[in-house]
User: Fold these one by one.
Assistant:
Number 1:
Amino acid sequence: MDRKYPRDRAAHRVGPVGQSLRWALTLVMTWALVWPPLAQADRTQLKPGWNMFSAQQDIEVGQQVSKEAEQQLRMLNDRRVDNYLNNLGRKLAGKAPGEKYPYQFKVVNDRAINAFALPGGPVYINRGIIEAADNEAQLAGVIAHEISHVALRHGTNQASKASAAQLPLAILGGLLGSNSVGATLAQLGASFAVNSILLKYSRTAETQADTMGTQILYDSSYDARAMAQFFEKIQAQDQGGQPVEFFSNHPNPDNRIQNVNQEIDNLGGARRGYNTNSREFDDIKRYVRSLPTPPAQGQPLQADSGRNDGGGQGSRPEWPSNRSVSVENSLLRMNHPDNWQAYGQGDAMTITPRGGMVDDGNGNQALAYGVIVNIYEPHQDRYGQQLQGPGYGQGSGQGSRQDSHALLDQATDQLIQELRQSNRNMRVVRPHEDISVNGSAATSTYLSNDSPLGGRETNWLVTLQRPEGLLFLVFTAPDRDFQSYERAFQQMLYSVRINR
């Protein structure tokens, strides 16, 4: 029988090689499709810090404070420039992670190089930024940085931390016992000003905004290196004897430019086909430069003091009911007498009877009877280790338990020290005692303080460690009534269930 061969025997012989080549090409093409997500897998993960405000309250804060801001700032109010800025800003904001805030972008008629963002979405860019930027990518870098402050909720995070450390304890209770954003801002002194608590960012917050801003630029197909280039430019100007206003409320973190470039490397390096400039930017920059010189600065910005007039001091509240109801937030669940009311701002709460908050004589609502629940972010311990975060105070064995209690005592001492700075007559009357709350190590401390009703009050402070920081509860009543309320306070503490 005749053998039958393929017509092209050479082709038959190289068939396996051809298959290998096709397989290799397929692998390369597949890798090219898979590579971008893998390259971005190393991006720095960021999330907002602890906050006593809700995301919706961020929006309310921003809307309220923006009205004050625009009464005090000289707005450019040029539709052509604002339209361009909003188109660019919303493109960038679409790449911001987390809550989708109603971002708005406006130009301030000021040639100083500065920009700021308010909670919940309002972003203000001085015309000086547009005039100083070399290209659209640099302007986009500044806008992305400000969007990041909003997305990471830095403004209300600063206000939340200040509330736990800077306000008198009684007024803090009144602040947490109010669901009014206006009352909260008034008592925090957070009306708009250049030194507003809503704009006082830490260097850590600045580094986070740089990092997320770099990610937003990269994801929006801009040259992410432009952020570092613009910061380098204005940093050289600042160091050359021409102070840059941007650094007055954006403290310059160490290694800022290197950090931006490092994040670009984490994202896989500068992407191909990135955008650096546009004709629209060049047109707007020329147009802004052609506008009349802004008027000279007048009076400095003044923050309104704000008042929240409450009711009179009234009589002693009714005694705690024997029936209880439950209240819960992301940190814990607990019971309280059913004739008491729980008020919340984010993870913070005040639980008080009717009439438990009184006017302190200065227009502030102050807590005289009730409970404050809040989070405190401790600083480093004596060895430079953070007293918070994942794994804080965790471990097994007797040595670990001793270490955990020692760290808890240090963090509690820091909290008491900061409370005493705003409560000058506060003193410790019964030092730390180790207790347990829902199976977790806790510390009990008794403090004496001035009561907003006059005379003295007892503050029973209970602290326990959580990954978010130091969770603390303060049970408060005037000295003459504390013993009568103590049983109710103890039952409330025994009912606490920590959300793991």
Note: Residues 397-422 form the longest helix (26 residues).
Number 2:
Amino acid sequence: MAARAPKVVCLPGDGVGPEVMLEATRVLQALGIGFEEHPFGGAAIDSWGRPLPQPTLEACRSADAVLVGAVGGAQWDGLPERPEQGLIRLRKELEVYANLRPAVGDGVDLLIVRELIGGLYYGGSGELPDGRVFDTMVYTRPEIERVARRAFELARTRGGALLSVDKANVLETSRLWRRVVTELAADYPDVELKHGLVDSVAMNIVMRPADFDVLVMENMFGDILSDVAAGVTGGLGLAASASLGDSSPGIFEPVHGTAPDIAGTGRANPTAMLRSVAMALEHGLAEPTKARALEAAVAAALAEAPTPDLGGAATTREFGDAVLSNLQVPVS
């Protein structure tokens, strides 16, 4: 019996999301990858009354990879459920606990592995009778162990160096984090493990980004430092991400926002979305050769047809055209 063809579920989202997703689907077509689109985020609130409709969730569960556009916008402020809550729920439902954020450029090639579905963003919160408010950061040994193992394994495929980032001089969760990662290091004798405090690491990413290889950290630290690393290497408009679990489909998405000021103008840079497609090919569809081909095509397009944010004049479609003209589709 013939193997089932891979399927990508595309969630265009809001703002510039549908515009850059269109360029992604053109690439998927050129590579012979099947896909289908479903409502998500603010657009799904408008049509379904909630940001993650059940049919969308079920489609994601049955996919090989999920490609997500940016979500959100002022028009959905104040609603009981914001567009961003759909993304948070999708991550939790698919149990994509390891967020991969590469930052590449000008001699820099680092990878941040962020724990994605635990910590402060998923802990308890509330308000006390005296007016104080609180958010709770909670981590368990298994949550730390699984993302740390993923980081060790990725470090093995790169330069063999792993930096674990924490705030062990202040936080009890960080002290547990450091203990667990240190214990796991015995299983990876080929990886050099070091520890760093998040504030010091933040400074050094700005000052000496080329010193880093793979970094692993908890959710909030990863949220912040991955954007710092993106800023050092060209900005969020170029930054892709992959969110991976153990058995569920991964989520692949650009990390920029919906950019409502340029939505509909044809000025959006689709680089981050197309790089997310490359990550989906590598980590979700087991197509590393096609991933490398797409990465090379995007690099060529950045040189030939830069968009306005990079000092050029190419439209979103013209950039996509440049990618397609440079895409050397491997013969399977």
Note: The chain has two domains: 1-96+245-332, 99-238.
